[in-house]
Design brief:
By secondary structure, the chain is an alpha+beta fold. Helices cover 36% and strands 18% of the residues. It is globular, with a radius of gyration of 22 Å.
């Protein structure tokens, strides 16, 4: 049996497979040609291994500029732009970026938690430098650990915080490299980041209300599972979801019909029993149309941390697809491509990740996880889950938030089913 804990010879994380050839090369180089997801005994998504990531057949495209998102998504943003331009509550939010102005309207709490997510980081994007209200020697001693799906508590970073007073401000403040800051320090608790993202997203929905939107972002942890023969292989726990509130019986029935169609296609149980019936039942997550993941620390400047987050998000997306093969009102593109949304925030940076896949991938994650993921010369991009992250959008940069707001409003018109 192949070793599930593969560590590259260089000691560094492997390059993300952006193409099928990259994925094939890693599989062959690490002797995983006969390995399946079931064989490696997968861990929960927050503890996902390199081999598990590859067994999920995932291609991860390097993060794209936030400017590319509006171009890549074939969505009409004019309605969203008009909604923001005509919204006095959004004007109040924009004013809150002015020094000395405090919003006390709908976006007030969202802005408060955004400021707390960026607390003590006063960055300049062009120079990539920042001011930090701790002594440099304290930065080097900070140790930050990752919370694992609520199963483990984060270890506290042993930092002596410097009180910011009028007399000590200039003497204690230090200008250090942006990378050092982002590597060494995180927000006090990831729930602060969670509230920042959920409050902002929900405020946008209410401030620019549309009859097409019927749901809420919820800061509740939701569990998704990958199973084989009704036995759990691994679980993924996300930090938040968008849940559609009112669903007609007609829409629920159509969703169930499509999920059952995909469930029985390739099902070894159905084939063995000689019938075409599916035993699939809609889960409690059937009304979830987008997921959310937050971290108290930035991903952008720490290679290993960035890798871990990408692996975890891939594991979450695959588990979501496995549990809910078709979303409410979801239809593929003309070429058979499905899409899903993952919204994430790491410290003060928001990312929008679009996952694309086809029914071939759905069939794999539902019915073939006991078979080798590798297949000599036969796999195409249609066999893979493809993750396209865009960002970062910084919560302390008004231009970024205006751009992100346009995107989220436009996506909300379809209850985030894209």
């Amino acid at each position: 049996m192949a070793n599930s804990e593969v560590i590259p010879a260089s000691g560094k994380a492997p390059e993300f497979p952006e193409h099928v050839d990259h994925w094939n090369n890693w599989i062959r180089a690490n002797n995983h040609c006969s390995t399946s997801l079931q064989i490696i005994k997968p861990k929960s998504a927050s503890k996902i291994t390199v081999a598990q990531f590859y067994m999920l057949r995932t291609l991860y495209i390097k993060p794209q500029s936030s400017d590319r998102l509006e171009k890549d998504l074939s969505i009409d943003y004019n309605k969203a732009k008009t909604a923001l331009a005509n919204c006095p509550l959004w004007k109040d939010y924009r004013n809150s970026f002015t020094e000395g102005y405090t919003s006390r309207q709908m976006f007030g709490l969202a802005r408060l938690y955004q400021q707390r997510s960026a607390h003590l980081l006063i960055g300049n994007r062009k120079t990539r430098r920042a001011f930090y209200l701790y002594k440099p020697e304290e930065l080097c001693e900070a140790q930050v650990s990752v919370r694992a799906e609520g199963e483990e508590e984060e270890e506290e970073a042993d930092l002596e915080r410097t009180l910011i007073t009028e007399s000590s401000f200039l003497s204690e403040i230090s200008t250090v490299e942006y990378d050092t800051i982002e590597e060494s320090h995180g927000v006090e608790d990831e729930e602060i980041v969670n509230f920042a993202l959920v409050l902002f997203a929900n405020s946008l929905i209410r401030a620019t209300s549309s009859v097409d939107v019927d749901g809420d972002w919820l800061p509740c942890r939701s569990s998704f599972k990958v199973k084989f023969e009704n036995k759990k292989l691994y679980r993924a726990l996300v930090d938040g979801i968008f849940r559609v509130e009112k669903v007609s019986e007609e829409k629920t029935g159509e969703q169930l019909k499509q999920c059952q169609r995909l469930d029985k296609t390739g099902s070894t149980t159905s084939q063995a029993n000689g019938n075409d019936e599916s035993t699939y039942k809609l889960s409690t997550n059937s009304r979830t149309t987008a997921i959310m993941e937050v971290k108290r620390k930035s991903r952008s400047n720490t290679e290993n941390w960035c890798v871990d987050i990408f692996y975890q998000e891939a594991g979450e997306m695959a588990a979501w697809i496995a549990e809910v093969p078709v979303l409410l009102d979801q239809k593929p593109d003309h070429d058979g491509t499905y899409r899903r949304l993952l919204l994430s925030q790491d410290q003060r940076e928001v990312y929008v990740t679009i996952a694309t896949y086809t029914e071939k991938y759905i069939s794999y994650i539902l019915h073939s996880v006991h078979k080798p993921a590798y297949a000599e010369g036969t796999l195409t991009t249609d066999d893979f889950l493809r993750m396209y992250p865009y960002g970062p959008f910084r919560v302390d940069v008004l231009e970024d938030m205006e751009q992100l707001a346009r995107v989220l409003i436009a996506l909300s018109y379809q209850n985030f089913v894209i």
